[in-house]
Amino acid sequence: MIDYTGSNYAVWETTPLKIDEFKKLLPTEQLEYLCLMAHLAPSSHNTQPWRFEIKPDQLEIVINIIKEFILPASDVNGRQTVISVGCALANLKTAANYLGYKIETTLLNNDKQIFKPTDDNSGLIPLLKIKIELDAPNENLAEVYQAIFNRKVTRAEYLESSEIPPNLLDEIDALNNDQIKIHLVSDRLRRLTISEFQGQADNFVINSKKFSRELGEWLLPNDSASFVGMPGIGFGLGDDEAKRLHDGLIGEIPLNPADGLKFSTGGKIGIEKSPTICFLTATDDNVENWIAAGEIVEKIFLKLTAHGIVFTMHAGITEVSLINKLFSMSFLGTSRRILSLFRMGYIKRNEDAQRPHSPRWPLEKVIIDN
């Protein structure tokens, strides 16, 4: 059996600091801890595209995007990368507010063009400056603060008949704002429609050499020692199956048709059998809304985690441009851009809940030396 407690999973063993413990830290240590909270956020393909610059004298953190991890096939505009940073920002805000600090955020780059992948993928893009200021601790955030350490994507079958509590759906719906709209879908007929679009998107990914090779580069064998990427166990794949699918997608061996079919239909079936689907759309497809969408997504994930509810991102509809447009026009009757889509529910098989978190770089690898 593969050991998922190696160095590429060690960051998840961090013990959450209590308010009084955090207050005793030096400014540099406090900022490092808040960066760690951000680092535990989800990211597209688990690229962890953020790099943190700490300025203890100013009590500031600058979040940069590392251009190398803007994926050229599935993230042609850098949208999903920026959304990932929005998720990291939500974690940082949650932890800071709980521990007795408020933050002020400044957007450093709002030109969409600079986030597009290029042949020269070296260097960093400064995205956000975060100013930390002393405030009263918000102990009402204790459960979602703890959820930062427990949150993980669980790509598995959910109990279709176990509905999400209405009061929790109301809390999620309350995160709507003027720019970002949250759509919650629980009726079976509409879920079936969404699942058809997801099936088309995943089928496109598997049959596109560019998409499938990129997916294979990030969908890894279960025994991988990589600090980034998605080991197959996260998709419920056994050791041999994960290795075979990885090798098939990157072209090392012919892709087993059964493996490709299982992967391309898994998302469709998952959406069909989940009690609630959630997706976010934006009035304007701009950098500010990408960050805002990421914040909302992670806030929802933390709420769900705190209530023992699991969730799975489904990137196909958001990443395949044609499917995204068709879905918006035919399902929503709008041109609003879909920025994120995921399903939620209660886990059906207990063993699926025991899967490991995704790997992570150690904190020192994502902090820039001054």
UniProtKB/TrEMBL annotation:
Keywords assigned by UniProt, alphabetized: Flavoprotein, FMN, Oxidoreductase
**A GO molecular-function annotation:** oxidoreductase activity
Q: What Gene3D superfamilies does its record include?
A: NADH Oxidase, putative nitroreductase (tm1586), domain 2
**Lineage top rank: taxon:** Bacteria
Q: Is Lyase there in the keyword field? A: no
Keyword field contains Magnesium = no
Protein name, entry field: Nitroreductase domain-containing protein
Organism of provenance: Candidatus Magasanikbacteria bacterium RIFOXYD2_FULL_36_9
